User: Which sequence fits this backbone?
């Protein structure tokens, strides 16, 4: 009986000791704050978004994109609209109606697109918000590829 009581006390002591250590460790890491010169960053990502590429009045393909972004946390707190709306609008304005051939779309330099999206979104806001854009997905799919995939196994007239 005494043996069971001592084992119970030992288990309680180990549990309380590990709880104390966990709380102490968590409060020690929480006390480390960013330096006053550093910018606090937040992150997020847009939904998968497609923009039709229209050449000579017909849909020639789609740019399909999903981007991750880093934001200035202090500026984000002052904005009520989700940032992905602004980014999607800039992507749409970048690609919709700006290409005269499919080869033009397929040779897009993402660094140029990224810079113009960041500049376009930051220009709409009172303070610069977006710090960086990262590519999660950036593809161009021709309309023919989509039709072929949708009619796979079916005879086309």
Assistant:
């Amino acid at each position: 009986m005494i043996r069971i009581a001592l084992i119970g006390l030992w288990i309680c002591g180990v549990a309380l000791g590990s709880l104390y250590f966990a709380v102490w460790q968590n409060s020690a890491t929480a006390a480390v704050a960013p330096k006053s010169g550093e910018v606090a960053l937040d992150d997020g990502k847009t939904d998968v978004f497609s923009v039709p590429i229209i050449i000579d009045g017909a849909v020639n393909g789609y740019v399909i994109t999903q981007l991750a972004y880093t934001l200035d946390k202090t500026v984000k707190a002052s904005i009520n609209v989700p940032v992905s709306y602004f980014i999607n609008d800039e992507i749409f304005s970048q690609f919709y109606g700006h290409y005269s051939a499919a080869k033009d779309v397929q040779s897009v330099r993402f660094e140029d697109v990224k810079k113009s999206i960041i500049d376009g979104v930051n220009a709409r806001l009172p303070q610069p918000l977006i710090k960086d854009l990262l590519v999660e997905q950036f593809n161009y799919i021709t309309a023919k590829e989509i039709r072929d995939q949708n009619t796979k196994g079916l005879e086309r007239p």
